[in-house]
Amino acid sequence: MSTTLYDKIFQAHIVDEIGDDALLYIDRHLIHEVTSPQAFDGLVQKGRKVRRPDLTFATMDHSISTRSLAIDACGPANKLQLQTLADNCAANGIELFPVGHQKQGIVHVMGPELGLIKPGMTVVCGDSHTATHGAFGALAFGIGTSQVEHVFATQTLKQSKAKCMKVEVTGARPLGVTAKDIILAIIGKIGHAGATGCVIEYCGDTIEGLSMEERMTVCNMSIEAGAKAGLIAPDQKTFEYLEGREYAPKGADWDAAVAYWKTLKSDADANFDVVVELAAKDIAPQVTWGTNPGQVIGVNQPIPAPENFSDPIDRDSAVKALKYMDLKAGQKLSDLTVNHVFIGSCTNGRIEDMRAAAEIAKQGKVASHVTAIVVPGSVTVKAQAEAEQLDKVFLEAGFEWRLPGCSMCLGMNDDILGQGDRCASTSNRNFEGRQGRGARTHLVSPAMAAAAALAGHFADTRDFVGND
Ligand SMILES: CC(C)[C@H](C(=O)O)[C@@H](O)C(=O)O
Ligand code: SF4
Question: Which atom of ligand 2 is closest in space to residue 345's alpha carbon?
Fold first, then answer.
């Protein structure tokens, strides 16, 4: 029988059947300070230990400052959370990359760059953007705290089979259209709940043409369409990315691994429950106007009117979103003044994102009313960017250059926006209050964010292309 990539990985990890569900073996468990403390507590109460500390890796990312390496920089509550992670990792023999460590970074940036994620793996983390790792052809999904405890104790997880959605993007990508624009356009098309109950497999020549970092940006936001996970079949680019990374297989193990990885693709006649098709030529640089990532338009489109939506739920949500975002139907994005720009996060905090933003940043100065911060996703990204002198480009243009962490992606640290602030952000969620109470988030690509910083309002990156 012909099967999908999702089916293949799922089947290969079944340890036991429990009614209609399966008990899956988990190959990699990533943890951070926010969702692990209760899980560790649960173990202690039941007198258990972490079964496979060697398959588990921890980092500090959400609750840390990007201005200081001190773990108390964001106050006593954050310090306690970070110290608890350090204590729990030490007690269970889990490798931790704390603040200041060479390998520290946002969990979804640090994992892939160390080679911890391999095609065909099952990967979990108590974090919804775990889907990022699907870029390697791994079945990667976020789990809740009680599931974190279950994985700690057993290295397995009970799972039901999801539906499979194929999202095929074809054709040459227009100049100035990035991976972020592709995924925002996909979510715009299917809606923020459009892939609920599904694992998405992204395919088509446009997806194949993406670099590994771009694929991570696409898979990262699968959850923003409601999907359980996002997958891209591994190929030569995947193998080249992994070869030589610290935790990637070596020697004969490498050869055997690649031979297996080459089998990891959906059969040509595999059946998908849902198929969605997009032509890359129809995608423009995207900007979200609302309070969910599906409320998105091309940079040159007007803010939509609620009457444009035929579904009454979408219409109501547009009314609410326009009110929160302080926008009027028909307004042009280029007329919207932004006073904050955030470049970073697990969606767009990688070296290629830094390069794309710097490419625009070097063409001008941050507008005087804008505060713009650039936050590399990991210590490795920061070091690479500095080796390329991108930090100098940003500082010269008036951006701040910060330490790695989740930062302004969500209000869990000291990078918080105020009431009424309007931010062009390269993160993945524009929910009400996400970046601070009453703050307004517009999701964009790194190039679009840098362009907004210079212009002081949204601007079309295609006007900057080739201007150096
Ligand atoms: C704090 C964490 C549980 C959360 C998540 O699950 O995604 C965070 O990373 C987010 O992006 O909102
Ligand atoms: S960068 Fe943002 S989305 Fe990613 S893990 Fe951190 S808080 Fe979550």
Answer: 1
Which residue numbers belong to the known binding site for [4Fe-4S] cluster? 346, 406, 409
DSSP string computed for 405-442: SSGGGSSSSS--PPTT-EEEE-SS---TTTTSTT-EEE
Q: Do domains 5-274 and 285-463 have the same CATH topology?
A: yes
Instruction: Give the start-to-end residue ranges of the domains of the chain.
Output: 5-274, 285-463
CA-to-CA distance for 305 and 318, rounded, in angstroms?
A: 8
> CB under 8 Å to 242, separation ≥6 — which residues?
115, 118, 136, 248
Beta bridge partners of 28: 123
Condensed to tens digits (0 to 9), the pLDDT of residues 166-178 reads: 999 999 999 999 9
**What is the average per-residue pLDDT within 137-153?**
98
**285-463: in CATH 3.30.499.10:** yes
| pLDDT tops 70 at residue 467 | no
Per CATH, the homologous superfamily of domain 5-274 is: Aconitase, domain 3 (3.30.499.10)
- One-letter identity of residue 436: G
Contact at 8 Å (CB) between 405 and 411? no
Contact between 201 and 186 under an 8 Å Cβ cutoff? The reply is no
Q: Residue 137 contacts by C-beta under 8 Å, 6 or more apart in sequence?
A: 5, 9, 119, 120, 231, 232, 233, 234, 238, 261, 264, 265
Phi-psi region of 75 (alpha: psi -120 to 50; beta: other; left: phi over 0): left
* Predicted confidence (pLDDT) per residue in 415-451, tens digit: 999 999 999 999 999 999 999 999 999 999 999 999 9
Ligand 2 surroundings by CB, under 6 angstroms: 61-62, 106, 108, 127, 129, 345-346, 406, 409-410, 427-428
Residue-wise pLDDT for 62-74, tens only, equals 999 999 999 999 9
- pLDDT tens for residues 254-299? 999 999 999 999 999 999 999 999 999 999 999 999 999 999 999 9
